[in-house]
Design brief:
The chain is an alpha+beta fold. Helix content is 49%, strand content 24%. It folds into 3 domains: 270 residues, Beta-Lactamase, CATH 3.30.450; 89 residues, no CATH class; 188 residues, Nucleotide cyclase, GGDEF domain (Alpha-Beta Plaits, 2-Layer Sandwich). The strands form 3 sheets. Strands 11, 12, 13, 14, 15, 16, 17 and 18 form an 8-stranded mixed β-sheet that branches. Strands 2-1-5-4-3 form a 5-stranded antiparallel β-sheet. Strands 7-6-10-9-8 form a 5-stranded antiparallel β-sheet, with helices on both faces.
């Protein structure tokens, strides 16, 4: 028993260690790849944001330049007071798609300014922009300006008459709308905030998560927000930094690793099953070793007691079997006895038979992508009631012959006939890059062949036949399936079940379709075919909806 226990512990330890190493490697590899992918997105976020702001600034500068060049606006600037000028600016605010418009004097004083929310604009806010433009001798000035508690990206262009008499500026808020625009372009979460005191200006995160992000330590680049791990990178833009603001992009590491977590759960389940199998195999292996040793010990005791007629038959072809043969030969030399029974005339033990079945090279398969087609004859039960058995078999063979020919001409193989139902494969056993196209062409040929058969049946005074076809493309296991006595090349997997379920959907009258294919088949098509979208449906045996299409 101690020897068996050691063997059991060895087997279980090896399997558990292999499972642990596999899960560890999968986790580390997936996390490393997820971090690398997020960092690649981070690397392009600064350029994306810079391009976005530059595009918005160019649009604002173009509108401001048109306004500064407008003769009527110049007259209004020269002839009206600040209140009237602000009224004119307010009417232009929505047309400019801006949140604020200002007219600034060359010394930085605000002549007139309006905001979309109606609040007043404080004096002297634009002096740094004007000073920067004077210093650089630029034909426009742009930068961030705080209007109360809101940060705006402003663009100033000169108003010439003909010398510089003022600056005309448009500003857009750095807020959630801008964050959403950047998020859509970069595929990342975005947070704009004020540095001191920390406050969120705009964010694509949920409000609670955004506030938690703003309150985190500034050097924390892997914060946990709402129980979810994020990676964070700062977007380094001089205008934001000068204004005391910041922009950050975030990506959820846990969300990127969710598929890996699901894979690990499946691997853990498979590992548990494998561990159970290994335990059973270890029991058999330990028994296959301990029992012969015990038998050899017992036989030795019988020989020592003078029983030379005893024979040891372990039925093994390994070292233990050789030892048993040596014991038997030794017994034959000590006394007259019968010849050793011919081991080849005996049935092999259950343990050996099970091992041959498990390790037989004729069994097994490989994973590959194939397109599965199921075709079912409609009304066969009703038809069989009105025909004699020989007539029914003849009619069924005529139908199957036409359908099979259509499948084979399209490059498919008939996997099996299930009564009046046909299961066909495309892409196995010989791989084909256009297996989906072949299956659809086969369905069209089957439809045409059925129409020709119905014309013949009509001439014979028989009712027409109908069928329903389901097509699905998926990764399945293809290979020799069966026992050591009988094998069958076929495919197994969830994709086969889905094809069969799609075939049953052709019975629904609201679909008005005799051929239905899955979204995966539509996506795999190389050629164009007339398809009609039937929407999403939850087929029997599944919890997730699948999109299906009818072949026109």
């Amino acid at each position: 028993m101690r020897f068996r226990l050691r063997v059991l512990l060895l087997f279980v330890s090896l399997v558990a260690a292999a499972l642990g190493v596999m899960l560890f490697v999968v986790n580390r590899s997936a996390e490393r790849e997820a971090v690398a992918e997020i960092e690649r997105r981070f690397a392009g976020a600064t350029d994306t944001f810079g391009q976005l702001v530059a595009r918005q600034n160019d649009q604002a500068a173009a509108f401001a330049s048109l306004l500064a060049a407008d003769y009527a606006f110049k007259r209004a600037f020269a002839d009206t007071d600040a209140i009237t000028l602000e009224s004119n600016l307010r009417s232009l605010l929505l047309r400019a798609d801006a949140h604020a418009i200002a007219v600034v004097m060359p010394d930085g004083a605000t002549r007139a300014a309006v905001r979309r929310d109606g609040r007043r604009v404080s004096e002297g806010l634009f002096s740094p922009l004007v000073a920067r433009a004077d210093e650089l001798e630029a034909d426009r000035a742009e930068g961030c300006v705080w209007l109360d508690d809101e940060l705006h990206e402003f663009v100033l262009v000169p108003l010439l008459a003909p010398e510089l008499v003022a600056w005309v500026g448009l500003g857009r808020r750095i807020d959630t709308d801008l964050a959403a625009d950047l998020s859509q372009r970069s595929g990342l979460e975005v947070v704009f905030g004020r540095v001191n005191p920390p406050r969120v200006l705009g964010s694509t995160l949920a409000p609670a998560l955004a506030e938690a992000f703003a309150a985190r330590p500034r050097d924390d680049t892997t914060p946990s927000l709402g129980g979810e791990r994020f990676l964070v990178a700062a977007i380094d833009l001089p205008d934001l930094a000068r204004a005391g603001a910041s922009a950050h992009v975030l990506a959820s590491l846990d969300a990127r690793l969710a598929p890996t977590r699901r894979l690990q759960a499946r691997l853990l389940l498979a590992g548990g099953l494998l561990l159970a199998g290994a335990l059973g195999a270890a029991v058999l292996f330990a028994r296959s070793l301990s029992r012969p040793v015990q038998a050899l010990a017992a036989h030795t005791r019988r020989i020592a007691a003078g029983d030379y007629a005893a024979r040891l038959d372990l039925r093994r072809r390994d070292e233990l079997g050789e030892l048993a043969s040596a014991f038997n030969a030794m017994s034959a030399g000590l006394a007259e006895r019968d010849r050793v029974r011919d081991l080849l005339d005996k049935n092999v033990s259950p343990e050996v038979a099970a091992r041959l079945l498990r390790d037989g090279h004729a069994l097994g398969g490989e994973e590959r992508e194939v397109t599965v087609l199921f075709c079912d004859l409609r009304g066969f039960t009703t038809l069989s009631e009105g025909l004699a058995p020989p007539e029914l078999v003849t009619l069924l063979n005529r139908y199957l012959d036409r359908m099979s020919a259509a499948v084979e001409e399209a490059g498919g193989i008939i996997d099996k006939y299930i009564g009046d139902e046909i299961m066909a494969l495309f892409g196995a056993p010989v791989a084909a890059a256009d297996s989906a196209d072949r299956a659809v062409r086969a369905a069209l040929a089957m439809r045409a062949a059925l129409a020709g058969l119905n014309r013949e049946l009509a001439a014979e005074g028989r009712p027409p036949l109908g069928f329903g076809v389901g097509i699905n493309t998926a990764r399945v296991v293809a290979g020799n399936i069966g026992s050591h006595r009988r094998l069958n090349y076929s495919v197994i997997g969830d994709g086969v079940n889905l094809a069969a379920r799609l075939q049953t959907l052709t019975r629904r009258e609201d679909y008005a379709a005799d051929v239905i294919l899955s979204e995966s088949t539509r996506a795999a098509l190389v050629s164009e075919f007339p398809l009609r979208d039937l929407g999403e449906v939850v087929v029997k045996g599944k919890t997730r909806a699948v999109r299906i299409h009818a072949l026109g």
